Amino acid sequence: MTATPETPLPESPLPEAPLPEDRLPENPLPRDKFLWGVATSAFQTEGAPTSDWAHWKIADAADQAARLRGVGHHERTADDLELVSELGLNAYRFSVSWSRVVPRPGEWVQDEVDRCVNIAVTLRQKGIEPVVTLHHFAAPAWLAERGLDWTEDAFVEEFISFATRIVGALRGTVKIWLTLNEPNVHVSGGYLGGMTPPGKTGLRAAHRALVNMLRAHARLYTVIHGLCPGAAVGITHNMLPFRPDRPDSFLDRRAAAILDRLYNQSVLEAFRTGRVTLRLLPFGRIAALPLVGRLDFLGVNYYTRAHVNFTEFHPSRLGYFWEDRTGRGLTETGWEVCPEGFAEVLRAASSLGVPLVITENGTAETDDARKIAFMRDHLEVMQRCRAEGVDVRGYFWWSLLDNYEWLIGLGPRFGLYRVDFTTLERTRTAAADEFAAHAAGRSGTILGDMGETSSTSDQPVST
Ligand code: GCO
Questions:
Q1: Position 202 confidence tier, pLDDT thresholds 50, 70, 90
Q2: pTM of this prediction?
Q3: 10 lies in a domain?
Q4: Interval 118-140: pLDDT, tens
Q5: Residue 103's domain is classified under what CATH number?
Q6: Best of 71, 73, 182 to mutate for ligand 1, by most ligand atoms within 8 A of CB?
Q7: How many structural domains comprise the chain?
Q8: Which residue puts its alpha carbon closest to atom 4 of ligand 1?
Q9: Cα 64 from Cα 269, distance rounded (Å)
């Protein structure tokens, strides 16, 4: 079996829906049921021996092992889902491992699909809304071996074929979908900067990859609504405010504006106008795609802000840096803690006119007090933005567990549950208690009025 569009994966009948449709919520994103969740991704929690990431620039034996098994989530799935339940949350975001489901050309591992269906069914039985990401960075290694990546139409066809069958399998249980995780990060790392698979560099490849990712989103939007009536279909977008290093420098301001356009605005503009550009100057490559109206909500991922100095600036390296300019210190990944930037990106994202879901916010801190301070400050900013009228319908902490961090490995502590990286034992942290209290409306802060974790409302999602 080859990976070309002429010879796609064999068709198979769509599986029966595991739960009757009438047990699914009418509207998965009603205004009065705020989603409180945690987010994970398949590769980072369970590894993937047949993925492009399994052999990509391995640092050492520990790194290699982590790429193969993550933090053992594949073997501990039921126990880990119980941890979500113990937090009292009403939503959980996870991704389906493309490379585990399609490990070799033409192969389809139904057990892996059934496992995902079971995760979704288990969550729903626990009163937790499953939110499924169809592509979270890692892809099957065999595609790379054939020279296929997001710059190639054949790759797009393989992904659409995989994703369509997954939606068919999960359609009776899942209503909230994320087609792709952070196209801007995937394109910056893999096609512009060459730091992540497939390791390409250059604006041409980056533009082609971005166009193809957004084309896949547009097609899947229609596929998902066709298979899953009443679904909410979104995409996640990592947003990063860029600050001129020296505010009085015209060149620093120009460089910051260029990076903002490349990194933040290109995706927003694509959904606003249907035009996909990666422009360094007022001219550049433009593609037109049917994206307008094909987004039910935008998933915003926010962690930090960046500083830009023209002398360091280079489009393929992006050339930004982090520095502690708010006095809150840097995180374990070296990122500036900047809740003010969160307000900025939420306001910018809301200009799209679709509801927002914070699909990732979090920080790597071993010190729980620092993690809790980050959480409170960012939740407070979110609440202020909501009071201003920014339509935020959910907040997902990154992450449930400490896990594999791209390009770093097992180290940074993003989890609400601490993972012993040797024994893989999970331990609840004080940050988990804090998050559970916010979700239950027991936080005693200004967030107390938004802690509803259940509702029967079925107002349509306004777009
Ligand atoms: C991303 C991803 C996550 C990361 C998280 C922390 O934003 O890159 O969605 O997979 O692990 O953001 O870096």
A1: confident
A2: 0.91
A3: no
A4: 999 999 999 999 999 999 999 99
A5: 3.20.20.80
A6: 182
A7: 1
A8: 405
A9: 39
